[in-house]
Amino acid sequence: MEPSGLAEKVREKFPEEVIEIQDFRGQVSLVLKKERIPDIFGYLHDDPVFLLDYLKDLCGVDYLGKRDSRFEVVYHLYSMEHRHMLRIKVPVSESDCVVDSVTSIWIGADWHERECYDMYGIEFKGHPDLRRILMPEDWEGYPLRKDYPVKGPDSEGEWQGFKEVLRKSEEFRKYEWKG
User: Fold this and answer.
1) pTM of the predicted model as reported, rounded to 2 decimal places
2) Is residue 168, in this structure, part of any structural domain at all?
């Protein structure tokens, strides 16, 4: 089934939860409210029409100053059996930056959700181990947010490990291949 047909079936089943169906250059995105994510995603995973049994990707987006909801969580779901894909977007406001975890449906969401949390500060309620995955535990802020300060090495207040990383980089430069 084509993604537009899949999106329409979701709208039939959950009319109150579908905000919009977007079609841009043949790529269909289903925009959903966040309140019933586990119900809807469980349905998409289990229903024989969909069988979206593989979470290809989950990522965050920051639309600072461009949309009412600052953030968006984007899910790319795929069916191994039917070989169809569906993209789902879930708007998340800055004041309520929480979405339900989907790790109970796709165990692979574990690290994707942790990365999204680490980079954007979007929390995933019900996640089994929501902590930083890319940045050090003592890192302050969320580096992929549009308002995250961009500083050079001479800036004051740098992360304490930054100078050590620079020192190691210089030390190991002698091992670079000059090919």
Assistant:
1) 0.84
2) no
- Give the span between the Cα atoms of 29 and 75, in whole angstroms: 10
- Within 14-161, residue ranges assigned H as helices are 37-46, 109-120
Residue 78 lies in a domain: yes
Q: What is the CATH number of the domain that holds 109?
A: 3.30.460.80
Answer yes or no: are the C-beta atoms of 86 and 30 closer than 8 Å. yes
Task: State the chain's maximal CA–CA distance in angstroms.
Answer: 62
- C-alpha 113/C-alpha 117 separation (Å) is 6
Tokens of 31: 């925009």
Give burial (CB, 10 Å; 0-12/13-18/19+) of 9. Answer: middle
Task: Tell whether the model's pLDDT for residue 152 goes beyond 60.
Answer: no
Q: Where in the sequence is the domain holding 79, given as residue range(s)?
A: 3-144
